[in-house]
Specification:
It is a single chain. The protein has 208 residues and is of the alpha+beta class. The chain has one domain (4-136, 147-184). Helix content is 28%, strand content 35%. The protein has a 6-stranded antiparallel beta sheet with strand order 1-2-3-4-6-5.
Length: 208
């Protein structure tokens, strides 16, 4: 049986140089210690070339938020993207029920994504996405569990390409991690930045 990791290495070696450079930048990025990040299997139907990462925001034994970031590349370009690269993300976190009832929450969460990109001076285009909030109530054998609420952001945007046709994927990853930390309720990484509004953390620790 073929080694799947070997197959991935072969696919990467056959990829265009701009895509390989963009992936290398993702792999070399240095992130804040509360964010655990690992490569994961990328979807194959969205673009000729794809690379994916999954991340979890951790505080002690508690997972505060999680997400996935996918880098897509089509060397021929893509009309809907207005470019040859595309970033696609899913971010999720649990909320206090009173926060989940805030009617402005979806707009605020979307502004966190665009604000994280802007804060790092990143140029991007064609942003699109959804913000979804959901509530769960437990019954029967699960009735002792308190109600739970979750926020989910699904989004995509086109990172502008720089020298050699390669976007600054490391900075886009860093801004995505800023979003993850913010939705998890962590304080800003930069000391003294009191302008960032964060969500309250979940009420009790959960096993990982």
């Amino acid at each position: 049986m073929d080694d799947p990791k070997e197959g991935e290495r072969d696919a990467m070696e056959a990829a265009p140089l701009p895509f390989r450079a963009a992936v290398d930048a993702l792999r070399a990025a240095r992130l804040r210690p509360q964010i655990e990040i690992d490569p994961t299997k990328a979807p194959r139907r969205l673009a000729p070339f794809a690379y994916a990462l999954e991340a979890t925001v951790v505080d002690g034994d508690e997972d505060l938020a999680d997400g996935r970031l996918i880098l897509l590349h089509d060397p021929a370009g893509h009309d809907a993207w207005q470019g040859s690269f595309r970033m696609v993300t899913l971010v999720r976190a649990e909320l206090e029920p009173e926060m989940a009832s805030d009617p402005l929450l979806p707009e605020v969460c979307w502004s966190w994504l665009t604000g994280a990109l802007k804060a790092r001076g990143l140029s991007y285009g064609e942003p699109s996405g959804t913000v979804t909030r959901a509530g769960s109530h437990y019954f029967g054998g699960l009735s002792e569990r308190p109600p739970a609420s979750q926020i989910e952001i699904r989004a995509s945007w086109t990172p502008r390409e720089g020298l050699g046709g390669v976007p600054d994927t490391a900075s886009h990853l860093a801004s995505w991690c800023d979003l993850l930390a913010q939705i998890a309720g962590l304080p800003p990484a930069a000391p003294g930045d009191a302008s960032v509004v964060t969500l309250p953390q979940r009420r009790g620790p959960q096993s990982r």
